[in-house]
Inverse folding.
């Protein structure tokens, strides 16, 4: 009886530790994505990928791509933000719209030294002129 109970207990612990959800760790300045095998449950968006980096010379590189196969229009809005005086302030923004299966933004912007920076993007898809889905992304903060 005890062995059966122990087996069930161990199996339950293993199952609980293998399940995870996507969340954010908040350190007051940045929101860092906690990785997990759980994926967004989008209806029309197939993939939304974002990368953000700052070189040792202050060159920030922004890349955002959204794929959707069953929509008329895709729009991406990207915001480069600086943490200044306790607030995130948008210092540069870009947008792009496409009627193809993908939409992308790829930009370079030099940033001022002595601040945290992050990328915030919003991907929106439309069918028959009506917004049907939106995905949002916020990178972790990078110090330069």
């Amino acid at each position: 009886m005890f062995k059966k109970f122990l087996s069930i207990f161990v199996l339950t612990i293993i199952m609980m530790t293998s399940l995870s959800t996507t969340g954010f760790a908040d350190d007051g300045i940045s929101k860092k994505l906690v990785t997990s095998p759980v994926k967004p449950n989008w209806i029309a968006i197939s993939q939304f990928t974002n990368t953000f980096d700052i070189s040792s010379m202050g060159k920030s590189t922004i890349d955002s791509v959204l794929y959707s196969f069953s929509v008329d229009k895709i729009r991406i809005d990207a915001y480069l933000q600086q943490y200044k005086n306790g607030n995130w302030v948008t210092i540069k923004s870009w947008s792009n719209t496409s009627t193809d299966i993908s939409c992308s933004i790829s930009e370079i912007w030099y940033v001022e030294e002595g601040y945290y920076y992050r990328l915030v993007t919003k991907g929106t898809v439309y069918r028959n002129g009506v917004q049907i889905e939106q995905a949002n992304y916020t990178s972790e903060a990078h110090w330069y």
In short: The helical segments are 2-18.
